Amino acid sequence: MTTIEAPRTPVRPAPKRGVNLEKWGWIYMRVSGVVLIVLIFTHLFVNLMLGDGVKAIDFGFVGGKWADPFWQWWDVAMLWLALIHGANGMRTIVNDYTKPGTAQKLMKLALFLAAAVLIVLGTLVVFTFDPCPAGAPADLLPSFCAA
Amino acid sequence: MPESSAGTLTAPEKPAKQKPGGTLYRGREGMWSWVLHRITGVAIFFFLLVHILDTALVRVSPEAYNAVIGTYQTPIMGLGEVALVGAIVFHALNGLRIILVDFWTWATRHQKVLFWIVIALWVVTMLAFTPRHLINVFSH
């Protein structure tokens, strides 16, 4: 008989009291993943398949979409869910390929900062966006700006 | 190797018809789905970082946004978008496979056939997307 050695990682039971953050992270990946499939597949279909696809995307296209609160909230939901999903997935990879220590902490800090800064930036962009900025050439703007 | 509470497993001395490197997991559907899930996930993450920054240019000026989004409409980036959509579709379908394997014992037992279903659905989706996208990229 050949003996297969026990895995090197010792058993780490979840804390008995308090919130089990790793469990909630695990649940988040699955729940956000399912929601993101609906959000992103629709995003790709509307922006790449309908009409002239990627060739139709310009400032006027984005202005036309974000004139509707429906697409503003759609895109903000994608932003938050996808960045947290992605950053948490990258955290799993950092945990897998690095040893605990300063370098690992810095990598996780970088992931956290990248996600936090882009979530704040993206949310501000979507909700402070002006589809008809003053002084811009009219032919670059959505058609409703002329009215 | 210190003994741990996880204990040890024993395997038969001579497994029937073992291929080099072939085990229940290594080199099989389970491993490749994991590898592809990681690679596509990392690729999508870095695209997402760039995509939020380029979209944020709408807040700078129409000219700045149009200049950068114009680079997404070149032939070389058009092919890149096929790769991007391919990565997203695989990650999405395999993610659903993972959820099924986690929560449904039938799916746990049949994770291999589910991997090939993921591949088949990926091929069908890409056949629907790629021609239309490439026509948009190359003919308009």
What can you see in these coordinates?
The complex is a heterodimer of chains A (147) and B (140). Chain A has helices at 21-49, 59-66, 69-97, 102-128; one strand at 2-4. By secondary structure, chain A is mainly alpha-helical. Chain A has a single domain, classed as Fumarate reductase/succinate dehydrogenase, transmembrane subunit (3 helical TM bundles of succinate and fumarate reductases, Up-down Bundle), CATH 1.20.1300. Chain A starts with a strand and ends in a 19-residue tail after the last helix. The longest helix of chain B has 29 residues, at 75-103. The radius of gyration of chain B is 21 Å and the shape is elongated. Mean pLDDT of chain B is 88; it is low at 1-5. At the A-B interface, strand 1, helix 1, helix 2, helix 3 and helix 4 of A face strand 1, helix 1, helix 2, helix 3 and helix 5 of B. Chain B: Pfam families: Sdh_cyt.
Keywords:
heterodimer, A: 147 residues, mainly alpha, 3 helical TM bundles of succinate and fumarate reductases, elongated, B: 140 residues, 2% strand, disordered N terminus
Element layout with pairings:
The complex is a heterodimer of chains A (147) and B (140).
Chain A: E1 2-4, H1 21-49, H2 59-66, H3 69-97, H4 102-128
Helix pairs in contact in A: 1-3, 3-4
Chain B: E1 9-11, H1 29-56, H2 62-71, H3 75-103, H4 105-109, H5 111-139
Helix pairs in contact in B: 1-3, 3-5
Question: What would you say about this model in short?
Answer:
The complex is a heterodimer of chains A (147) and B (140). With 147 residues, chain A is mainly α.
Spatial gap, N to C terminus of chain A: 83 Å
CATH topology of chain A: 3 helical TM bundles of succinate and fumarate reductases
Q: What proportion of the residues of chain B form beta strands (DSSP E)?
A: under 5%
Q: Count of helical segments of chain B?
A: 5
Largest sheet of chain A: none
Shape of chain A: elongated
Range of helix content of chain A: 55-70%
When the domains of chain A are counted, the total is 1
Which regions of chain B have little confidence, pLDDT < 50, spanning 5+ residues?
1-5
Examine the secondary-structure arrangement and name the CATH architecture of chain A: Up-down Bundle
Query: Which sequence of SSEs, written as H and E, runs from N to C of chain A?
Result: EHHHH
| Percent of sequence in beta strands of chain A | under 5%
In total, the number of strands of chain B is 1
Classify the secondary structure makeup of chain A into a structural class: mainly alpha
Low-pLDDT runs of chain A: none
Q: What is the typical, i.e. mean, pLDDT of chain A?
A: 92
Distance between the termini of chain B: 64 Å
Assigned CATH class of chain A:
Mainly Alpha
Name of the CATH superfamily of chain A: Fumarate reductase/succinate dehydrogenase, transmembrane subunit
